[in-house]
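task queued by scheduler; priority normal; single chain, no ligands, no partner chains; default sampling; output format set to C-alpha coordinates
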Amino acid sequence: MSARAGLVGLVEEDWLQTIVNLPPVEFLDFVLEGRRLASELRAQGAQLIVALTHMRMPNAEKYRTTRHTRHTRHTAPTR
Protein backbone atom coordinates (compact mmCIF):
# COMPACT_ATOMS: atom_id res chain seq x y z
CA MET A 1 0.00 0.00 0.00
CA SER A 2 1.29 3.46 -0.81
CA ALA A 3 0.35 6.96 0.28
CA ARG A 4 0.81 10.34 -1.33
CA ALA A 5 2.84 12.73 0.80
CA GLY A 6 3.12 16.50 0.73
CA LEU A 7 6.09 18.47 2.06
CA VAL A 8 5.99 22.00 3.46
CA GLY A 9 8.99 24.07 4.60
CA LEU A 10 8.43 26.86 7.13
CA VAL A 11 10.76 29.36 8.81
CA GLU A 12 10.29 32.15 11.32
CA GLU A 13 10.84 35.76 10.30
CA ASP A 14 13.90 36.30 12.53
CA TRP A 15 15.71 33.45 10.81
CA LEU A 16 15.51 35.23 7.45
CA GLN A 17 17.61 38.09 8.82
CA THR A 18 20.53 35.72 9.43
CA ILE A 19 20.93 34.84 5.75
CA VAL A 20 23.60 36.78 3.87
CA ASN A 21 22.64 37.91 0.35
CA LEU A 22 19.00 36.91 0.67
CA PRO A 23 16.96 38.65 -2.02
CA PRO A 24 13.92 40.59 -0.79
CA VAL A 25 11.15 38.25 0.31
CA GLU A 26 7.71 38.77 1.77
CA PHE A 27 7.26 37.06 5.12
CA LEU A 28 3.88 35.43 5.70
CA ASP A 29 2.59 34.16 9.04
CA PHE A 30 3.92 30.61 9.30
CA VAL A 31 0.81 29.24 11.05
CA LEU A 32 -1.64 30.64 8.50
CA GLU A 33 0.59 29.77 5.56
CA GLY A 34 1.19 26.26 6.88
CA ARG A 35 -2.56 25.70 7.11
CA ARG A 36 -3.11 27.10 3.62
CA LEU A 37 -0.39 24.93 2.10
CA ALA A 38 -1.63 21.82 3.91
CA SER A 39 -5.15 22.40 2.57
CA GLU A 40 -3.76 22.89 -0.93
CA LEU A 41 -1.74 19.68 -0.70
CA ARG A 42 -4.76 17.74 0.60
CA ALA A 43 -6.81 19.04 -2.33
CA GLN A 44 -4.08 17.69 -4.63
CA GLY A 45 -4.39 14.24 -3.05
CA ALA A 46 -1.80 14.24 -0.26
CA GLN A 47 -2.70 11.79 2.50
CA LEU A 48 0.30 12.66 4.69
CA ILE A 49 1.75 16.15 5.12
CA VAL A 50 5.17 16.74 6.62
CA ALA A 51 6.19 20.21 7.79
CA LEU A 52 9.92 20.83 7.98
CA THR A 53 10.47 23.88 10.15
CA HIS A 54 13.43 26.02 11.11
CA MET A 55 12.40 28.08 14.11
CA ARG A 56 12.99 28.52 17.80
CA MET A 57 11.10 26.35 20.26
CA PRO A 58 8.40 28.92 21.23
CA ASN A 59 7.43 29.37 17.58
CA ALA A 60 7.69 25.65 16.85
CA GLU A 61 5.37 25.00 19.78
CA LYS A 62 2.97 27.69 18.55
CA TYR A 63 2.83 26.01 15.14
CA ARG A 64 2.45 22.53 16.62
CA THR A 65 -0.39 23.46 18.97
CA THR A 66 -2.43 25.51 16.49
CA ARG A 67 -2.69 22.84 13.79
CA HIS A 68 -5.51 20.37 13.54
CA THR A 69 -3.81 17.03 13.11
CA ARG A 70 -4.34 13.56 14.43
CA HIS A 71 -0.66 12.79 14.88
CA THR A 72 2.09 15.23 15.75
CA ARG A 73 5.74 14.49 16.28
CA HIS A 74 8.06 17.27 17.24
CA THR A 75 11.77 16.75 17.37
CA ALA A 76 13.75 19.27 19.36
CA PRO A 77 17.21 20.25 18.14
CA THR A 78 20.11 18.54 19.87
CA ARG A 79 22.53 20.64 21.84
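post-processing summary
- The longest strand covers residues 5-11.
- The CA atoms of residues 2 and 27 lie 35 Å apart.
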